[in-house]
Amino acid sequence: MNYPSKLLNEIVDEISKLPGIGKRTALRLALYLLKQPQEQTQSLAETLLRFRNEIKYCKVCNNISDTEVCEICQDNSRDHTLVCVVEDIRDVMAIEKTGEYKGVYHVLGGIISPLEGISPTDLTIKELLERIENYQIREVILALSATVDGDTTNFYLYRKLNSLKNIPDISTIARGISVGGELEYTDEITLARSIQNRVPFDQSIKQNK
Q1: Could you tell me if residue 62 is inside a domain?
Q2: 112 and 118 in contact (C-beta within 8 Å)?
Q3: What pLDDT was estimated at residue 179?
């Protein structure tokens, strides 16, 4: 596509690098921003920079936070002996939206995926194991998406957790979520019931054989 301006070409290239946005959508967004008051565009740019520079990751659970320890980990009314392991912040938001879960979280920052070059060392698995070793964790819920990579990560975590001195109960969300389904796109009722009706992980392994 030929652009009448090099600056337009550059902004379209940058916007199109975002996931799910092609060149045409990027062009539409660029032209929309061009029509807006300069103050609005400047505010957007400043907010993006602040977000990138000031956002923190909770030192306890690796959730995105404005402070060193996120609000969930600071909440004494929650059950800190119950840890739900999720892929990323979107899954925390999805589970929180159900209003049914009262424990805390551990965000892996992804899932094991050999095809994408993501190994266990790229995730916060070491931090999870240290957290369980150092604190009184009675149960770990493996709440990863029902995909091949999600199941691979679940099984890897299950083996690592079983190698600890203080082995917690290990459960997984019930398969109300369709195989291949992403957690963040699951409706609230199904997700809430999947957490409520979670099953021991070793039992889920036998069911899948």
Answers
A1: no
A2: yes
A3: 45
Lowest pLDDT segment from 8-22, 98-112, 175-189 = 175-189
Q: Give the separation between CA 176 and CA 182, rounded to whole angstroms.
A: 12
What does 29-79 look like in DSSP terms, one character per residue?
Answer: HHHHHHHS-HHHHHHHHHHHHHHHHH-EE-TTT--EESSSS-HHHH-TTSE
Tokens 């999947």, residue?
194
Q: Based on the domain organization, do 80 and 31 belong to the same domain?
A: no
CATH code of the domain containing 119: 3.40.1360.10
Whether residue 108 is found in the same domain as residue 200: yes
Average pLDDT over residues 13-28: 95
Q: What is the DSSP letter of 179?
A: T
Please give the model's pTM, rounded to 2 decimal places. Answer: 0.78
- Which tens digits make up the pLDDT trace of 54-95? 999 999 999 999 999 999 999 999 999 999 999 999 999 999
Q: SS3 sequence, 92-108? A: HHHHHHHCCCCEEEEEC
Query: How many structural domains is the chain composed of?
Result: 2
Say what the pLDDT of residue 166 is: 86
> 3-class DSSP state for residue 14?
helix
What's the length of the chain? 209
d(C-alpha 69, C-alpha 63), whole Å: 9
SS3 140: strand
The boundaries of the domain holding residue 148 are 73-208
Rg (CA), the chain: 21
